[in-house]
Amino acid sequence: MEYVVITFLCLGILLYFLLGGADFGAGIIELFTSAKNRSRTRKTMYHAIGPVWEANHMWLIIAIVILFVGFPHIYTTMSVYLHIPLLIMLIGIIARGTAFVFRHYDAIKDDMHWLYNRIFRYSSFITPLFLGIIAGSVISGHIDTNANDFLSAYVFSWLNWFSVSVGLFTVSLCGFLAAIYLIGETDDGHDKRRFIKKAEYMNIAAVIFGAMVFIAAAIDKIPLIDWVFKNPVGLSAIVLASLSLILLWYLLLKGKTKVLRILAGFQVSMILLAISYAHFPNFIRLKNGDTISLFNTLGPEKTIYSLGLALLLGSVLILPFLGYLFYKFQKKEE
User: Fold this and answer.
1) Is the pLDDT of residue 264 over 60?
2) Which ranges of the sequence are coiled-coil (predicted)?
3) How far is the C-alpha of 314 from the C-alpha of 69, rounded, in Å?
4) Could you tell me the residue ranges of all domains in the chain?
5) Residues 6 or more apart in contact with residue 101 via CB below 8 angstroms
6) In the prediction, which pLDDT does 329 show?
7) Collapsing DSSP states into helix, strand and coil, what is residue 283?
8) Residue 290: phi, psi to the nearest 5?
9) Phi/psi at 332 (nearest 5 deg)?
C-alpha cells in the first residue's frame, strides 16, 4: 500500500504544478501585460480559470495530508526548517484567492479594485516563486538540522542561489503554461498573437533561469547534471521534453492549437521527471550529507494502509466529478 500512497503524493505534486501552476501563470501573464491590454487579458483569464481555479488547490491539500499522515518526519523537517517560505507561499495563496474573488464579485465598484488587481498579480508571482524555492531547498542540501543559530537553521536553508533560481524557473514555467493554455481560450486574432508572444517570452525566460539553476547547482556542488544527464530515464525525459517543445512551436506556427496544452503539460512533466527520478526515493537532502527517504520515513503500517485505502476510495468518488466540472465549463464556453 505504500506504493499507492507514494504514487498519489507524486501525482498530487505534479497535477498541482500543471493545473494550479497554470492558474498562477495567468496572474503572471497579467502582471507582464501592458496597461491597455490588461482588461482584455483579465477577461480571457477569468473565463478560463474562473470556474475551476479553487478546485486546483485540492492537489496541494492532498500532498500536504499525505506528508502529514504518511511521512511525518518529512513533514516535520519541512515545517520547521522551511517554515518561512511555506508561510509566505500560504499567504500568497490566500491573498491571491481573496483578491480574485473581490475583484470579480465585489458588489460595489470603487477605487479598491486597483488594490485587488495588484494583490492578485503580485501574489500570482510570489506564490510559485516560493513554491519553487521550497522545491529547490529540499534537494539542495542546505537544510542544516544541526544548526545552532537562527539564520543557519531557518534562513540559509532556503535563501541561496540554487533555491532562488529554481523559484524563478518555476515562475517562468507557470507563465509558459498559462500562455499556452490561454491561446485556446480566445477566438480573437489579436489576443492569440499576444498570448503567443507571451509564451515565447516565458519560454526564453525558462531557458535563462534553467541555465541559472545548473550554474547554481555546480557552484553548490549539487549533482544536478548527474541526475539529469547521466541516467537513461533523465536523459530520455530531457530529449522528449525538447522534442515536444519543437513540435509545440511547429503546430503553433501552423495554427493548430488543439493539442498545445497536452504538449506543454507533457514537456513540464518530463522536466520534473528528469530532475527527480535519479534521487528518488530520497525526498530531502541535508547539509550533513544524509538524506530523508520516503521509504525510511513511512508511518505505521496500519496508518499507511488506511491512508492508501482512503486515497483509492476518494479518487473513485472525486475524480469523475472533477473531470465533469472541467468538461462542463469548457462545454459551456463552446
Assistant:
1) yes
2) none
3) 16
4) 2-333
5) none
6) 63
7) strand
8) -75, 160
9) -60, -40
